[in-house]
Each structure stands twice: as structure tokens, then as C-alpha cells.
Specification:
Layout: H1 19-36, H2 38-49, H3 54-77, H4 79-84, H5 86-115, H6 128-143, H7 147-152, H8 157-184, H9 188-208, H10 216-230
Helix pairs in contact: 1-8, 2-3, 2-6, 2-8, 2-9, 3-6, 3-8, 5-6, 5-9, 9-10
């Protein structure tokens, strides 16, 4: 989720058609993007982290998120088309829900193997190309949620593009941070995917019931509760993977 996914926050965009006004809003946009990109960042961190190779993780994030920026800009350009074809938004929601089910299915399978004293065989890491594509399209699925707001402020092209770039920079920062935190906080990955599931349900409801009021404060509160729970338990330092310690 990003700032344009919350309609009430788009009031920040109104009337900002001069560079001076754009610059004055940047600190607010940066702060909001850092907070609102948390659910997206956890999903991307989990995808990038699958290789357990810090250098490879950084490379895949750098390339994948650069590609994501290109796709975000393309999405803004094609926003009217996306709104006219609701199946695109439903496909994005279904993809996000698949990420959630895949995460919990894999987690449950590993727990069963552990409980049965079976040796858990590590999954082979994805190829760099596959990881990059998965990162880019996962971000694209999240960005679908903000298409309506982007169209609503389509006359503010400079600010929309600026916000998109800020969002990508914030996402790269938070994804890198969450790669480390996923190892330090055992609940965080689950909390992040619960938030992803919530975003998916929110998008489905928006498509099926466009007149349904989904208060922004409730969205922020639910995401905050998920991540507060996720950060409530930390592993002892001796149990943290030194490859992700920092």
C-alpha cells in the first residue's frame, strides 16, 4: 500500500502545481510513504531473502525495485484503462492473496516436518532473474490499489511522478531493513502477510462494492496493529543469523 491508496491523504496533492509547493510537501510524503510501504516491504523482503545471500539480496532488490518504478509509471499512464477493466484489479488482488496462502502453506508444511522430526530440506534459491521479476510484479500488484487516486489527481503529473519515485526509494530502504528484521522478529513475516491479505480483501471490496466506505483511519489502524504485534517479540541476539545482523 502507498500514500495514494488512501483517498483522504490525496488532499495533500490538491493545488500543488508549482515546484515550490511540491518541495514543501516532500517531507510529509517521505514520512507517509515509509509508514504505508511496510506491508509491501515485508512481502518484497521475504521474496528477496529466500536466497540467504546478502549480496544477492541487495542486487535483486536494486534491480527489481528499479523495474518496479518503470511499471509504476506505466500504471499511472494506463490508469484509465485499468479502471475500465475491473478484472485487472481482481487479478492483482488474487495474486496478493496467493502470496498470503503460499506463505502460510509453506510455513505450515515446515512446522509439520519439524514436529514429525523430519529433516527440513531447504528450498533451492530462486534464480536472480526470477526473483527480480517476482519483486517487480509484486510491487505492481500493490500499486493497483492506488490507481483510482492517481486518476483523481491526474492533472498533478509532477507531484504524482515525484511521489512514485519517493515511494520506490522508501520501499528500497524499508525492504532492506525488513530483510534484517525478519530474522530478528519471528512474528514480523506473519504480521506482514496478514497485512498483505488485508490489502487484497480491501481491493476486492473496492471493486465489488465501489460505494462501500472504507475509512482510511481504520486501514491505518489495522496495519498498525498487525505490525505492532509483529514487532512485539524479538529473538535473543545469539539466535540471529549473523548474515542479516546489523
Amino acid at each position: 500500500m502507498d500514500i495514494t491508496a488512501l483517498p483522504s491523504l490525496t488532499d495533500l496533492y490538491e493545488g500543488a502545481d508549482q515546484w515550490r509547493e511540491v518541495v514543501s510537501l516532500l517531507p510529509v510524503l517521505v514520512l507517509l510513504e515509509l509508514v504505508l510501504s511496510a506491508d509491501n516491504a515485508v512481502a518484497l523482503a521475504a521474496i528477496a531473502r529466500s536466497g540467504n545471500d546478502p549480496e544477492r539480496e541487495r542486487l535483486s532488490l536494486n534491480i527489481g525495485i528499479t523495474l518496479a518504478l518503470v511499471l509504476r509509471i506505466g500504471l499511472i499512464v494506463a490508469a484509465q484503462w485499468v479502471l475500465q477493466h475491473l478484472w485487472v484489479q481482481l487479478v492483482a488482488a488474487a495474486y496478493l492473496m496467493w502470496l498470503v496462502f503460499d506463505h502460510f502453506w509453506q510455513h505450515n508444511r515446515e512446522e509439520i516436518q519439524d514436529n514429525q522430526d523430519k529433516k527440513v530440506i531447504d528450498r533451492l534459491p530462486r534464480s536472480l532473474a526470477k526473483t527480480v521479476v517476482l519483486l517487480a510484479f509484486t510491487d505492481l500488484a500493490f500499486s493497483i490499489d492506488s490507481v483510482a487516486a492517481a486518476v483523481a489527481v491526474s492533472d498533478q503529473v509532477i507531484l504524482i511522478a515525484t511521489a512514485a519515485m519517493i515511494g520506490i526509494v522508501a520501499l528500497r530502504f524499508t525492504s532492506g531493513l525488513f530483510i534484517r528484521w525478519l530474522d530478528e522478529y519471528p512474528r514480523l513475516e506473519t504480521a506482514g502477510f496478514l497485512a498483505v491479505g488485508f490489502v487484497s480483501i480491501r481491493l476486492i471490496l473496492h471493486v465489488l462494492f465501489p460505494l462501500l466506505n472504507q475509512p482510511d483511519w481504520l486501514t491505518l489502524l489495522i496495519v498498525l496493529v498487525f505490525f505492532s504485534w509483529g514487532l512485539s517479540v524479538k529473538k535473543p541476539d545469539s539466535m540471529i543469523d549473523p548474515r542479516h545482523a546489523g
